[in-house]
Amino acid sequence: MKKHKKNNLLITGGAGFIGCNFVKMLLEDMRIDDLNLVVLDNLSYCGNLQNLDFARNYSNYVFIKGDICDRVLLDKIFAENEINGVINFAAESHVDRSIHDSEPFLRTNVGGTLALLDMSVKHNVKKYLQVSTDEVYGSLSAAEPAFTEQNYIKPRSPYSASKASADHFVMSYYATHNLPVVITRCSNNYGPNQFPEKLIPLMVLNAMEDKDLPIYGDGRNIRDWVYVGDHCAAIWNAFECGNVGEVYNVGGNCELTNLQIVTKILDVLGKPESLIKYVADRPGHDRRYAMNSDKITRELGWKPKVGFEDGFAATIEWYKKNYEWCRKIRSGEYLEYYRRQYENI
Ligand code: NAD
Ligand code: TDX
Q1: Percent of the chain at pLDDT above 70?
Q2: Could you tell me the pTM of the whole model?
Protein backbone atom coordinates (compact mmCIF):
# COMPACT_ATOMS: atom_id res chain seq x y z
CA MET A 1 0.00 0.00 0.00
CA LYS A 2 1.38 3.45 -0.92
CA LYS A 3 1.85 5.60 2.15
CA HIS A 4 2.27 9.07 0.73
CA LYS A 5 -1.42 9.91 1.01
CA LYS A 6 -2.86 12.54 3.35
CA ASN A 7 -4.90 10.16 5.47
CA ASN A 8 -3.50 6.83 6.61
CA LEU A 9 -6.39 5.72 8.77
CA LEU A 10 -6.68 2.87 11.21
CA ILE A 11 -10.30 1.72 11.41
CA THR A 12 -10.84 -0.71 14.27
CA GLY A 13 -13.87 -3.00 14.44
CA GLY A 14 -14.41 -2.56 10.70
CA ALA A 15 -15.81 -6.07 10.26
CA GLY A 16 -18.75 -5.28 12.53
CA PHE A 17 -22.09 -3.66 11.75
CA ILE A 18 -21.31 0.06 11.79
CA GLY A 19 -17.62 -0.32 10.90
CA CYS A 20 -18.30 -2.19 7.64
CA ASN A 21 -20.94 0.35 6.61
CA PHE A 22 -18.40 3.09 7.34
CA VAL A 23 -15.65 1.46 5.24
CA LYS A 24 -18.20 1.00 2.44
CA MET A 25 -19.17 4.66 2.62
CA LEU A 26 -15.53 5.80 2.34
CA LEU A 27 -14.50 3.38 -0.42
CA GLU A 28 -17.63 2.98 -2.52
CA ASP A 29 -19.77 6.07 -1.97
CA MET A 30 -17.32 8.88 -1.24
CA ARG A 31 -14.42 7.41 -3.24
CA ILE A 32 -11.99 9.62 -1.36
CA ASP A 33 -8.75 9.61 -3.23
CA ASP A 34 -6.41 10.83 -0.57
CA LEU A 35 -6.89 7.88 1.75
CA ASN A 36 -5.34 4.61 2.88
CA LEU A 37 -7.42 2.38 5.13
CA VAL A 38 -6.09 -0.24 7.51
CA VAL A 39 -8.96 -2.19 9.05
CA LEU A 40 -8.13 -4.03 12.27
CA ASP A 41 -10.63 -6.49 13.73
CA ASN A 42 -10.21 -9.63 15.80
CA LEU A 43 -13.26 -11.21 14.11
CA SER A 44 -14.98 -11.93 17.40
CA TYR A 45 -18.42 -13.59 17.35
CA CYS A 46 -20.02 -10.52 15.71
CA GLY A 47 -17.18 -9.59 13.38
CA ASN A 48 -17.54 -11.07 9.92
CA LEU A 49 -14.99 -10.74 7.12
CA GLN A 50 -17.77 -11.35 4.61
CA ASN A 51 -19.02 -7.86 5.57
CA LEU A 52 -15.88 -6.47 3.91
CA ASP A 53 -15.91 -8.61 0.75
CA PHE A 54 -16.65 -5.53 -1.36
CA ALA A 55 -13.39 -3.88 -0.23
CA ARG A 56 -10.98 -6.58 -1.41
CA ASN A 57 -10.29 -5.02 -4.79
CA TYR A 58 -9.34 -1.60 -3.48
CA SER A 59 -5.58 -1.03 -3.50
CA ASN A 60 -5.86 1.56 -0.69
CA TYR A 61 -7.41 -0.99 1.75
CA VAL A 62 -5.86 -3.71 3.88
CA PHE A 63 -7.45 -5.94 6.51
CA ILE A 64 -5.53 -7.18 9.54
CA LYS A 65 -6.96 -9.76 11.90
CA GLY A 66 -5.89 -8.72 15.37
CA ASP A 67 -6.88 -7.42 18.76
CA ILE A 68 -6.92 -3.76 19.80
CA CYS A 69 -5.52 -4.86 23.18
CA ASP A 70 -2.36 -6.22 21.50
CA ARG A 71 0.10 -3.35 21.94
CA VAL A 72 2.96 -5.03 20.09
CA LEU A 73 0.75 -5.53 17.05
CA LEU A 74 -0.62 -1.97 17.28
CA ASP A 75 2.88 -0.50 17.45
CA LYS A 76 3.84 -2.41 14.32
CA ILE A 77 0.67 -1.41 12.46
CA PHE A 78 1.06 2.27 13.33
CA ALA A 79 4.73 2.30 12.30
CA GLU A 80 4.48 0.26 9.09
CA ASN A 81 1.42 2.09 7.79
CA GLU A 82 2.38 5.56 9.03
CA ILE A 83 -1.00 5.81 10.69
CA ASN A 84 -2.03 9.44 11.26
CA GLY A 85 -5.71 8.99 12.09
CA VAL A 86 -7.68 6.48 14.17
CA ILE A 87 -11.41 5.77 14.25
CA ASN A 88 -12.24 3.29 16.98
CA PHE A 89 -15.39 1.25 16.37
CA ALA A 90 -14.07 -1.93 18.02
CA ALA A 91 -16.08 -2.89 21.07
CA GLU A 92 -18.09 -5.46 22.87
CA SER A 93 -21.39 -3.85 21.95
CA HIS A 94 -24.29 -5.87 23.36
CA VAL A 95 -25.91 -4.88 26.66
CA ASP A 96 -27.40 -8.34 27.33
CA ARG A 97 -24.00 -10.01 26.98
CA SER A 98 -22.50 -7.46 29.40
CA ILE A 99 -25.06 -8.61 31.96
CA HIS A 100 -24.01 -12.26 31.60
CA ASP A 101 -20.27 -11.49 31.68
CA SER A 102 -18.81 -7.98 32.06
CA GLU A 103 -15.11 -8.81 31.89
CA PRO A 104 -14.72 -8.79 28.06
CA PHE A 105 -16.28 -5.32 28.13
CA LEU A 106 -13.64 -4.04 30.52
CA ARG A 107 -10.90 -5.68 28.47
CA THR A 108 -11.84 -4.46 24.98
CA ASN A 109 -13.84 -1.29 25.60
CA VAL A 110 -11.54 0.14 28.26
CA GLY A 111 -8.22 -1.70 27.89
CA GLY A 112 -8.35 -1.72 24.08
CA THR A 113 -9.22 1.97 23.92
CA LEU A 114 -6.34 2.74 26.27
CA ALA A 115 -3.90 0.80 24.11
CA LEU A 116 -5.08 2.73 21.02
CA LEU A 117 -4.72 6.03 22.87
CA ASP A 118 -1.16 5.22 23.97
CA MET A 119 -0.16 4.24 20.42
CA SER A 120 -1.83 7.38 19.06
CA VAL A 121 0.29 9.52 21.39
CA LYS A 122 3.45 7.56 20.57
CA HIS A 123 2.93 7.88 16.81
CA ASN A 124 1.74 11.51 16.82
CA VAL A 125 -1.67 10.80 15.37
CA LYS A 126 -3.39 13.91 13.98
CA LYS A 127 -6.93 12.88 14.95
CA TYR A 128 -8.38 10.15 17.16
CA LEU A 129 -12.12 9.59 17.00
CA GLN A 130 -13.88 7.47 19.60
CA VAL A 131 -17.22 6.00 18.54
CA SER A 132 -19.27 6.19 21.71
CA THR A 133 -22.93 5.86 22.58
CA ASP A 134 -25.96 7.66 24.02
CA GLU A 135 -26.05 4.98 26.71
CA VAL A 136 -23.25 6.68 28.66
CA TYR A 137 -25.81 9.32 29.73
CA GLY A 138 -28.01 6.74 31.44
CA SER A 139 -31.79 6.64 31.22
CA LEU A 140 -34.43 9.36 30.66
CA SER A 141 -37.96 9.53 32.01
CA ALA A 142 -40.77 10.35 29.57
CA ALA A 143 -40.82 13.99 30.70
CA GLU A 144 -37.09 14.77 30.51
CA PRO A 145 -35.54 16.60 27.55
CA ALA A 146 -33.24 14.72 25.15
CA PHE A 147 -29.59 14.29 26.18
CA THR A 148 -27.23 17.13 25.29
CA GLU A 149 -23.44 17.01 25.52
CA GLN A 150 -23.82 18.79 28.90
CA ASN A 151 -25.66 15.90 30.53
CA TYR A 152 -23.86 14.04 33.28
CA ILE A 153 -22.36 10.67 32.43
CA LYS A 154 -24.52 8.19 34.37
CA PRO A 155 -24.11 4.70 32.86
CA ARG A 156 -26.38 1.97 34.22
CA SER A 157 -25.26 -1.24 32.45
CA PRO A 158 -21.81 -2.86 32.45
CA TYR A 159 -21.69 -2.12 28.69
CA SER A 160 -22.40 1.58 29.11
CA ALA A 161 -20.09 1.78 32.14
CA SER A 162 -17.24 0.46 29.99
CA LYS A 163 -18.03 2.90 27.16
CA ALA A 164 -18.26 5.79 29.65
CA SER A 165 -14.92 4.81 31.17
CA ALA A 166 -13.37 4.76 27.69
CA ASP A 167 -14.77 8.25 27.03
CA HIS A 168 -13.15 9.52 30.22
CA PHE A 169 -9.79 8.06 29.16
CA VAL A 170 -10.14 9.66 25.73
CA MET A 171 -10.79 13.09 27.24
CA SER A 172 -7.98 12.62 29.77
CA TYR A 173 -5.54 12.01 26.89
CA TYR A 174 -6.64 15.29 25.33
CA ALA A 175 -6.06 17.17 28.59
CA THR A 176 -2.90 15.36 29.65
CA HIS A 177 -1.14 14.42 26.42
CA ASN A 178 -2.66 16.95 24.04
CA LEU A 179 -3.90 14.10 21.82
CA PRO A 180 -6.36 15.60 19.27
CA VAL A 181 -9.48 13.62 20.12
CA VAL A 182 -13.15 13.81 19.18
CA ILE A 183 -15.96 11.70 20.62
CA THR A 184 -19.26 10.95 18.88
CA ARG A 185 -22.15 9.59 20.93
CA CYS A 186 -24.89 8.08 18.83
CA SER A 187 -28.29 6.57 19.51
CA ASN A 188 -29.54 3.15 18.32
CA ASN A 189 -28.52 2.30 14.75
CA TYR A 190 -30.41 0.09 12.32
CA GLY A 191 -29.54 -1.01 8.78
CA PRO A 192 -27.80 -3.77 6.81
CA ASN A 193 -25.25 -6.15 8.38
CA GLN A 194 -26.38 -5.75 12.01
CA PHE A 195 -25.69 -8.89 14.03
CA PRO A 196 -29.02 -10.56 14.92
CA GLU A 197 -28.64 -10.30 18.68
CA LYS A 198 -29.90 -6.69 18.52
CA LEU A 199 -33.60 -5.84 18.54
CA ILE A 200 -34.41 -5.17 14.87
CA PRO A 201 -32.52 -8.00 13.11
CA LEU A 202 -33.46 -10.50 15.81
CA MET A 203 -37.15 -9.69 15.48
CA VAL A 204 -37.05 -9.57 11.66
CA LEU A 205 -35.44 -13.00 11.40
CA ASN A 206 -37.69 -14.55 14.06
CA ALA A 207 -40.77 -13.15 12.32
CA MET A 208 -39.59 -14.44 8.94
CA GLU A 209 -39.31 -17.90 10.52
CA ASP A 210 -42.61 -17.65 12.45
CA LYS A 211 -40.77 -17.82 15.76
CA ASP A 212 -41.74 -15.96 18.95
CA LEU A 213 -40.69 -12.30 19.21
CA PRO A 214 -39.36 -11.89 22.77
CA ILE A 215 -40.19 -8.40 24.07
CA TYR A 216 -38.58 -7.50 27.39
CA GLY A 217 -40.85 -6.12 30.13
CA ASP A 218 -43.82 -4.07 28.95
CA GLY A 219 -42.29 -3.21 25.55
CA ARG A 220 -42.64 0.52 26.22
CA ASN A 221 -38.92 1.31 26.51
CA ILE A 222 -38.00 3.99 24.02
CA ARG A 223 -35.00 4.20 21.71
CA ASP A 224 -34.06 6.98 19.26
CA TRP A 225 -33.40 5.23 15.93
CA VAL A 226 -30.90 6.42 13.35
CA TYR A 227 -30.04 4.82 10.01
CA VAL A 228 -26.49 3.44 10.02
CA GLY A 229 -25.51 5.45 6.92
CA ASP A 230 -26.44 8.68 8.68
CA HIS A 231 -24.33 7.69 11.69
CA CYS A 232 -21.38 6.92 9.40
CA ALA A 233 -21.71 10.34 7.74
CA ALA A 234 -21.74 12.00 11.17
CA ILE A 235 -18.56 10.15 12.19
CA TRP A 236 -16.71 11.21 9.04
CA ASN A 237 -17.92 14.77 9.47
CA ALA A 238 -16.74 14.83 13.08
CA PHE A 239 -13.43 13.21 12.15
CA GLU A 240 -12.72 15.68 9.35
CA CYS A 241 -14.17 18.89 10.79
CA GLY A 242 -14.93 18.32 14.49
CA ASN A 243 -13.15 20.48 17.03
CA VAL A 244 -10.63 18.60 19.11
CA GLY A 245 -11.57 17.91 22.71
CA GLU A 246 -15.28 18.00 21.80
CA VAL A 247 -18.16 15.57 22.08
CA TYR A 248 -20.86 15.44 19.39
CA ASN A 249 -24.23 13.81 20.04
CA VAL A 250 -25.82 12.06 17.06
CA GLY A 251 -29.47 10.98 16.97
CA GLY A 252 -32.21 10.22 14.50
CA ASN A 253 -34.89 12.36 16.13
CA CYS A 254 -37.01 9.24 15.90
CA GLU A 255 -38.23 7.97 19.27
CA LEU A 256 -40.17 4.72 19.14
CA THR A 257 -41.13 2.12 21.71
CA ASN A 258 -39.88 -1.42 21.22
CA LEU A 259 -43.49 -2.50 20.79
CA GLN A 260 -43.95 0.01 17.95
CA ILE A 261 -40.84 -1.38 16.24
CA VAL A 262 -41.94 -4.98 16.56
CA THR A 263 -45.47 -4.20 15.39
CA LYS A 264 -44.04 -2.46 12.31
CA ILE A 265 -41.88 -5.50 11.54
CA LEU A 266 -44.92 -7.79 11.72
CA ASP A 267 -46.86 -5.37 9.57
CA VAL A 268 -44.20 -5.15 6.82
CA LEU A 269 -43.70 -8.93 6.79
CA GLY A 270 -47.43 -9.67 6.96
CA LYS A 271 -47.10 -11.77 10.12
CA PRO A 272 -49.60 -12.04 13.01
CA GLU A 273 -49.27 -10.17 16.33
CA SER A 274 -49.73 -13.52 18.08
CA LEU A 275 -45.96 -14.03 17.52
CA ILE A 276 -45.26 -11.35 20.17
CA LYS A 277 -44.18 -12.86 23.46
CA TYR A 278 -43.58 -10.75 26.57
CA VAL A 279 -40.61 -12.10 28.51
CA ALA A 280 -38.77 -11.15 31.72
CA ASP A 281 -37.34 -7.64 31.63
CA ARG A 282 -33.64 -6.92 31.07
CA PRO A 283 -32.08 -6.19 34.50
CA GLY A 284 -31.48 -2.44 34.88
CA HIS A 285 -33.27 -1.85 31.56
CA ASP A 286 -32.86 1.83 30.56
CA ARG A 287 -36.31 3.27 29.99
CA ARG A 288 -35.71 5.89 27.36
CA TYR A 289 -32.90 7.34 25.23
CA ALA A 290 -33.26 10.48 23.14
CA MET A 291 -30.48 12.54 21.62
CA ASN A 292 -30.31 16.27 21.02
CA SER A 293 -28.10 16.60 17.91
CA ASP A 294 -28.26 20.42 17.69
CA LYS A 295 -24.52 20.83 18.25
CA ILE A 296 -23.36 18.66 15.33
CA THR A 297 -26.03 20.25 13.10
CA ARG A 298 -25.09 23.78 14.11
CA GLU A 299 -21.30 23.36 14.08
CA LEU A 300 -20.73 20.75 11.37
CA GLY A 301 -23.90 20.89 9.28
CA TRP A 302 -24.80 17.20 9.85
CA LYS A 303 -28.45 16.10 9.86
CA PRO A 304 -29.99 12.64 9.43
CA LYS A 305 -31.06 12.20 5.80
CA VAL A 306 -32.80 8.83 5.81
CA GLY A 307 -36.37 8.87 7.10
CA PHE A 308 -37.40 5.97 9.31
CA GLU A 309 -39.96 4.51 6.90
CA ASP A 310 -37.42 4.37 4.04
CA GLY A 311 -34.52 3.12 6.18
CA PHE A 312 -36.69 0.51 7.86
CA ALA A 313 -38.08 -0.84 4.58
CA ALA A 314 -34.55 -1.01 3.10
CA THR A 315 -33.30 -2.82 6.21
CA ILE A 316 -36.02 -5.47 6.14
CA GLU A 317 -35.44 -5.93 2.42
CA TRP A 318 -31.71 -6.44 3.08
CA TYR A 319 -32.38 -9.20 5.62
CA LYS A 320 -34.78 -10.90 3.20
CA LYS A 321 -32.19 -10.80 0.41
CA ASN A 322 -29.29 -11.85 2.64
CA TYR A 323 -30.85 -14.78 4.39
CA GLU A 324 -27.73 -16.84 3.63
CA TRP A 325 -25.55 -14.30 5.53
CA CYS A 326 -27.90 -14.65 8.47
CA ARG A 327 -28.04 -18.43 8.29
CA LYS A 328 -24.25 -18.70 8.41
CA ILE A 329 -23.78 -16.50 11.45
CA ARG A 330 -26.70 -17.97 13.34
CA SER A 331 -24.80 -21.13 14.17
CA GLY A 332 -22.43 -22.33 16.89
CA GLU A 333 -21.78 -19.59 19.42
CA TYR A 334 -24.88 -17.65 18.39
CA LEU A 335 -27.21 -20.58 19.06
CA GLU A 336 -25.59 -21.15 22.43
CA TYR A 337 -26.08 -17.49 23.32
CA TYR A 338 -29.67 -17.54 22.06
CA ARG A 339 -30.53 -20.57 24.19
CA ARG A 340 -29.01 -18.97 27.28
CA GLN A 341 -30.67 -15.57 26.76
CA TYR A 342 -34.10 -16.83 25.76
CA GLU A 343 -34.15 -20.21 27.49
CA ASN A 344 -37.62 -19.74 28.92
CA ILE A 345 -39.47 -18.91 25.71
P1 NAD B 1 -20.55 -4.81 16.46
O2 NAD B 1 -20.61 -5.62 17.70
O3 NAD B 1 -21.38 -5.18 15.29
O4 NAD B 1 -19.03 -4.71 15.94
C5 NAD B 1 -17.94 -4.60 16.78
C6 NAD B 1 -16.70 -5.05 16.00
O7 NAD B 1 -15.56 -4.93 16.87
C8 NAD B 1 -16.76 -6.51 15.54
O9 NAD B 1 -16.35 -6.63 14.19
C10 NAD B 1 -15.76 -7.23 16.46
O11 NAD B 1 -15.16 -8.36 15.88
C12 NAD B 1 -14.76 -6.11 16.74
N13 NAD B 1 -14.04 -6.31 18.00
C14 NAD B 1 -14.55 -6.61 19.22
N15 NAD B 1 -13.56 -6.72 20.12
C16 NAD B 1 -12.39 -6.46 19.47
C17 NAD B 1 -11.03 -6.41 19.85
N18 NAD B 1 -10.67 -6.66 21.13
N19 NAD B 1 -10.11 -6.11 18.92
C20 NAD B 1 -10.46 -5.88 17.63
N21 NAD B 1 -11.74 -5.91 17.21
C22 NAD B 1 -12.69 -6.20 18.11
O23 NAD B 1 -20.86 -3.34 16.98
P24 NAD B 1 -21.47 -2.09 16.22
O25 NAD B 1 -22.91 -2.06 16.48
O26 NAD B 1 -20.94 -2.04 14.86
O27 NAD B 1 -20.83 -0.91 17.10
C28 NAD B 1 -19.61 -0.29 16.71
C29 NAD B 1 -19.30 0.80 17.71
O30 NAD B 1 -20.37 1.74 17.74
C31 NAD B 1 -19.15 0.30 19.14
O32 NAD B 1 -18.09 1.00 19.73
C33 NAD B 1 -20.47 0.66 19.80
O34 NAD B 1 -20.30 0.89 21.17
C35 NAD B 1 -20.84 1.91 19.07
N36 NAD B 1 -22.27 2.23 18.96
C37 NAD B 1 -23.15 1.30 18.48
C38 NAD B 1 -24.49 1.65 18.33
C39 NAD B 1 -25.50 0.68 17.78
O40 NAD B 1 -26.70 0.98 17.79
N41 NAD B 1 -25.10 -0.48 17.27
C42 NAD B 1 -24.94 2.92 18.69
C43 NAD B 1 -24.01 3.84 19.20
C44 NAD B 1 -22.68 3.48 19.32
O1 TDX C 1 -34.82 -9.67 22.42
C2 TDX C 1 -34.88 -8.45 22.71
N3 TDX C 1 -36.03 -7.95 23.23
C4 TDX C 1 -36.18 -6.65 23.59
O5 TDX C 1 -37.24 -6.24 24.06
C6 TDX C 1 -33.77 -7.56 22.49
C7 TDX C 1 -32.48 -8.06 21.91
C8 TDX C 1 -33.93 -6.25 22.85
N9 TDX C 1 -35.09 -5.79 23.40
C10 TDX C 1 -35.19 -4.36 23.79
C11 TDX C 1 -34.13 -3.88 24.76
C12 TDX C 1 -33.97 -2.43 24.36
O13 TDX C 1 -34.95 -1.64 25.04
O14 TDX C 1 -35.02 -3.59 22.61
C15 TDX C 1 -34.29 -2.39 22.87
C16 TDX C 1 -33.04 -2.37 22.00
O17 TDX C 1 -32.19 -3.40 22.47
P18 TDX C 1 -30.74 -3.69 21.80
O19 TDX C 1 -30.94 -3.90 20.34
O20 TDX C 1 -30.07 -4.73 22.60
O21 TDX C 1 -30.04 -2.25 21.92
P22 TDX C 1 -29.72 -1.32 23.19
O23 TDX C 1 -29.65 -2.08 24.44
O24 TDX C 1 -30.69 -0.16 23.12
O25 TDX C 1 -28.23 -0.83 22.80
C26 TDX C 1 -27.95 -0.45 21.43
O27 TDX C 1 -27.92 0.92 21.25
C28 TDX C 1 -26.82 1.65 21.75
C29 TDX C 1 -26.63 -1.06 20.95
O30 TDX C 1 -26.63 -2.46 21.18
C31 TDX C 1 -25.44 -0.42 21.61
O32 TDX C 1 -24.23 -0.94 21.08
C33 TDX C 1 -25.49 1.04 21.37
O34 TDX C 1 -24.46 1.67 22.07
Answers
A1: 98
A2: 0.97
